Amino acid sequence: MLAAALAASALLAGHSVQDRPIHAARAAAAPKPKIVHSPIPFSNKRRHEMGAYSLRHYGARESRLREVKTIVEHVTAGSTYASAYNTFARDVPDSELHELPATCAHFVVDTDGAIHQLVPLRYRCRHTVGLNDRSIGIEHVGLSDGEVLGRRRQLRASLKLTRWLQARYAVPTKYVIGHAESLSSPFHHERVKRLRTQTHGDMQHATMVKYRRKLR
User: Fold this and answer.
1) pLDDT for 41-84, tens place per residue?
2) What distance in Å separates the CA atoms of residue 148 and residue 200, rounded to the nearest whole number?
3) Cα(189)–Cα(130) distance, rounded to whole angstroms?
4) How buried is 66 (Cβ within 10 angstroms: 0-12 exposed, 13-18 middle, 19+ buried)?
5) Terminal alpha carbon distance of the chain
6) Integer CA distances (angstroms), 189 to 73, 130, 158, in order
7) How many CB atoms lie within 10 A of CB 75?
8) Cα gap 213→216, rounded to integer Å
9) For residue 135, what are the β-bridge partners?
10) What is the pTM of this model?
11) Which segments of 122-204 does DSSP mark as H helices, in order?
12) Of 79, 213, 106, which Cα lies nearest the Cα of 161?
């Protein structure tokens, strides 16, 4: 009876009983890294805007991140953490799509390896068109993919953070993607027709092949 109950519980959770030791082992092998809490303003107004954005783009009014399916890696296209923080902190229409709320990411990994958490994981961030309702966004301070891969402390911190998030949300390595890979994600969906092929060029597939290899 106990085995049957465990099996039913596991199936409801989305994985089998045989998977449970794997997830437990992964969690034990992926301890939480040191994270500096550096919250951006995330007021009721901004959460309401996120709900309205979700209604337009995903079909349901919701600001909470209730289901994490994928982790998206980004490059800030700037040289300092302060510039990234200031960009995400100002709740103004973004320069590309001209929508509210402002763009943001849950985490920013600085060049020295410091991990800053900007937004609680219970809320959605606007970091990847078509995936904001199902993903966690990690930004890396830098001007290119190569800079991020070439900085040992930054890359090491990024891998630790990603592994911890994978363990927490049971995200397989194949669903850790770069921003440039967003359109190939099985979880990508977008109601606004003109944005269904919209993506960015940071953390391209070749970069992520190397990154995912290091994750494993």
Assistant:
1) 999 999 999 999 999 999 999 999 999 999 999 999 999 999 99
2) 16
3) 5
4) exposed
5) 36
6) 18, 5, 26
7) 24
8) 5
9) 70
10) 0.87
11) 145-150, 152-169
12) 106
